[in-house]
Amino acid sequence: MLSATRKPTRIQTKNRALIERAALKIFSRDGFRGATVDAIADAAGMSKQNLLYYFPTKDDIYRSLMEGLLEDWLAPLRELDAGGEPIEQIAAYIDRKIELARDFPMESRLFASEMIRGAPTLGDVLAGDLKALVDGKAAVIRDWMDEGRLNRLDPHHLIFAIWATTQHYADFDVQVRAVLGAVGDRRLEDAAATLQTIFLDGLRPR
Amino acid sequence: MLSATRKPTRIQTKNRALIERAALKIFSRDGFRGATVDAIADAAGMSKQNLLYYFPTKDDIYRSLMEGLLEDWLAPLRELDAGGEPIEQIAAYIDRKIELARDFPMESRLFASEMIRGAPTLGDVLAGDLKALVDGKAAVIRDWMDEGRLNRLDPHHLIFAIWATTQHYADFDVQVRAVLGAVGDRRLEDAAATLQTIFLDGLRPR
DNA sequence: GTCTATATAAGGATAGAC
DNA sequence: GTCTATCCTTATATAGAC
User: Fold this and answer.
1) Which residue is nearest to nucleotide D13 (CA to C1')?
2) Are residues B23 and B111 in the same domain?
3) Portion 10-29 of A in contact with B at CB < 8 A
4) What pLDDT, on the 0 to 100 scale, is given for residue A206?
5) CATH code (residue A24)
6) I need a labelling partner for A96 at 20 to 30 A (CA). Which of A123, A191, B54, B147 fits?
7) What pLDDT score does B106 carry?
8) Residue A171 sits in the same domain as residue A81
9) Residues A35 and A51 occupy one common structural domain
């Protein structure tokens, strides 16, 4: 019997990790409703019954994934430093977000899928922790604008734009690859360079 | 019996439209696998059996929705005019895309859901019609850059950035609302203004 | 901890009456 | 065209042997 109080054994730790990795793959592709416990068990290389020994319900697996997701996803924004040089700080933030899209595309798609569904699981954190963090960093950016160190625009929508453009390379990967075709191998590097130009300099020639 | 050759009756046209509207709602929220015929029939206000009289399979409903989707979604890009003034053309394109996100959010989420799944249905069109259109318009933008009328950057990634930032307001609507809170009522107008500034002028003060 | 077996429900689809 | 009834498969979850 699986105890919540007892310290997990090596095999428990290993199997739970195995299941979560498999679940990430399935949930990120098929969404919560579309994913089946069978498919997850299959991807984890174990029987459905065995999987349900570790996570009693499908919802438990999903919640377990969601727990760390938002926090990992927001870490780059937390690092935005009010004491730093504004243009450098924004540039570094864009780079960190592009790296996340490159290294954790399934996490990005899982998050996108949860948002598209209307965030039934993460809804509360969005209006709580997330809003608090974004409001705080938006205030920092607004201060920089007030000091004349950045062109003036709405800081919240600037943050949305950085999220959207970077996560796009994970969420719409199949479309990006289809459009770029054979030359798409360098897509993340090219994206980073292009986004830096757009956000920092814009399209209008100087 | 439903004939494919005979001209549809008024009631057929009405019911097929009713079903497609309901299917858009369900598919855009739950994805293809997560959506159930029952849920669609429920949303359409008819029995599952009756629905299956009009669309023999769940896949038929989905394909019917997909048929028009990409074309409608790309129409704004087609309007980008090589003979126009570059900055004006880009600005107008951004505005048209924001209007789509505002007026057809479910279509946007359905498209996003299909991409996240790896585009099993639209895959071929992406590498075909879509790539051809984007390559063509990217060439137009590149010409403008060669003429010194736009700051130089990768045109493909510029188009991706416009897609990402505008569609974000439909696909991540729940997150945008959560972050903006009570002041979010003007979010689309503010987004349009902010995106114009970002794309045209960038962050670095002039 | 893992396996076999199974309960129970949901989901896609069809048959045939009206 | 719509309804009732039904078939078959898939899916979530549990029971109990080993």
Assistant:
1) A57
2) no
3) 28-29
4) 85
5) 1.10.10.60
6) A123
7) 98
8) yes
9) yes
B interface test, pick of A58, A144, A157, A190 with most B CB neighbours within 10 Å: A157
How high does pLDDT run on average in chain A? 96
Best of B36, B172, B195 to substitute, by most chain A Cβ atoms within 10 angstroms, is B172
- The contacts of residue A196 (CB under 8 Å, 6+ apart) are A91, A94, A95
Q: From the Cβ of B2, is strand D under 7 Å away? A: yes
Taking the C1' atom of every nucleotide in all shown strands and the CA of A2, the nearest one is: C1
Report the domain count for chain B: 2
Residues B48 and B81 in one domain: no
Task: Among B56, B74, B101, identify where a domain stops.
Answer: B56
Strand C footprint nucleotides (protein C-beta < 7 Å) = 1-5, 10-16
The model carries a pTM of: 0.97
* A7 — pLDDT class (breaks 50, 70, 90): confident
Domain region containing B176: 63-203
Kindly state the average pLDDT of the residues A94-114. 98
Say yes or no for a CB contact (<8 Å) between A119 and B174: yes
Residue A35 sits in the same domain as residue A87: no
- pLDDT for res A10: 87
Confidence at residue A8, expressed as pLDDT on a 0 to 100 scale: 81
Looking at residue A91, its pLDDT comes to 98
| Residue B46 shares a structural domain with residue B117 | no
Whether residue A28 is found in the same domain as residue A127? no
Single out the residue in B28, B56, B84 at which a domain terminates.
B56
The CATH number given to whatever domain includes residue A128 is: 1.10.357.10
Nearest nucleotide to A52 by CA–C1' distance? Answer: D13
- In the structure, how far is the CA atom of residue A23 from the C1' atom of nucleotide D18, in angstroms? 29
Query: Chain B contacts of A165, Cβ < 8 Å?
Result: 160-161, 164-165
Say how far apart CA B152 and CA A202 lie, in whole Å: 10
pLDDT one-digit tens code per residue, B91-123: 999 999 999 999 999 999 999 999 999 999 999
Are A50 and A125 found together in one domain? no
Q: Encode chain A in three state secondary structure.
A: CCCCCCCCCHHHHHHHHHHHHHHHHHHHHHHHHHCCHHHHHHHHCCCHHHHHHHCCCHHHHHHHHHHHHHHHHHHHHHCCCCCCCHHHHHHHHHHHHHHHHHHCHHHHHHHHHHHHCCCCCCHHHHHHHHHHHHHHHHHHHHHHHHCCCCCCCCHHHHHHHHHHHHHHHHHCHHHHHHHHHHHHHHHHHHHHHHHHHHHHHCCCCC
